[in-house]
């Protein structure tokens, strides 16, 4: 029994090592200004300074975050409305809307990207910030829909009707009754949309204006041509993001501990 | 239950009648319009471009051209092969991880799961670059291209396999396993006859989330394979980029679309069967 436990812990540790090794490397080499990972030019905070002072880098990071926030917000509104449409429409409409929504979940990113590029070149509004935003929304919204629909299914259907019977307008019933019930689904949908948008390379590269860069597109091109790029500074960025994530995980861990402790104390009190 | 539904429907209609013609299904209209404009219409354009030449005349030449070129066909099979191997390796790593995580009872199991998903918040192109540098330090970069690509793909897609399997495992009715043990099934029997079959839906959706994007994830092959491992997705990118042959690019995109939907339909059928079997249990 005990060896089983040791083996399973060792396995988890090994997989975690694989998952975190690249991140650790990025963090370690964020404290030296060597251009290439693997070389050590002495300890320095130079990359962190560059990260926050080089205007080009700052713009790129702001671009990426603003784009993700906008795409996430629009996807969340559109997807929540879409999920309600799918859930409340008659069977035929509901099925075709759900089917159309699922296309981009199954579809390859490259196919989404080139098909949108065709449309934008046809509409002659070629590649602008709007085409980029539309690309991200088209890619993210179906995932919001998928995370909201289960919450609608779990909801007691008579709640909305009860609100109407008690004199609420449909709008008020939706905002005060339905929305709070499905909020967890909306929040997780938003988080998912945010993650997808932040990470996206392929769709971005086909819908973005030429001079616009996100972290993904910049790093992708810089890896191919490392010479005069700001690539090393991104090691500092990775370290900063990692620090934030670690802090969040620690906070969650403390909260979880407190909860279990409380339960233990409560149980003890009950026993008394 | 049925009765309550009828009554509520009546009140619903009554209210609808009093408050104008608002229906909740109307809320879906903006999304329906968006999907028509930016999902359905673009795909129709792909179909049109795939079946026309640069002058807009109808032709099968793009498909004939693609399939008569041996390199293209082998690229197609390499893409499917890489996707297949990646899915298999991900499953072999992810299943035990998800299984072990699902056995943790406390609230802390959630945090352990988070530990596996958290890296996804760091830009994936950046993480891929870091892993590439590790392979470089190990002296593997440029030597074992195929292996490197598999490592990169597994690294990228592993969380997508862990999550759905973990979710089905924790939602599983634990009393079934206990019943199996009570009826004399040992650990292995219980696992293979109860746990594994019941987790098939999670495995299928995880496999889909890895297999489908794998075929077109040329960011990984470019980063790890020295651009020497050709993916079908890369070919599409080249056709729309450097080669600027949109008709050929659309034809390849359409071929890929067909592969994806066929895979989806096949596994969708599989899923239904497995849930039926689950119900029979």
Describe the protein in words.
- The complex is a heterodimer of chains A (272) and B (281).
- Chain A has 272 residues and is mainly α.
- Chain A is 80% helix and 0% strand.
- Chain A has eleven helices and no strands.
- Chain A has helices spanning 2-28, 46-53, 55-88, 91-106, 109-122, 129-154, 158-165, 170-199, 202-207, 215-224, 233-271.
- In chain A, α1 runs antiparallel to α11 (233-271), α3 (55-88) packs across α8 and α7 (158-165) packs antiparallel against α8.
- Chain A is globular and about 70 Å long.
- The two termini of chain A are 34 Å apart.
- The model of chain A has no long low-confidence stretch (mean pLDDT 87).
- Mean pLDDT of chain B is 82; it is low at 1-7, 14-19 and 269-281.
- Chain B is built from 13 helices and no strands.
- Chain B is an all-alpha fold.
- Chain B has a domain at 72-235 and 255-280: MetI-like (MetI-like fold, Orthogonal Bundle), CATH 1.10.3720.10.
- The chains are: A mainly alpha (272), B mainly alpha (281).
- Chains A and B meet through α1, α3, α4, α5 and α6 of A and α1, α2, α4, α5 and α6 of B.
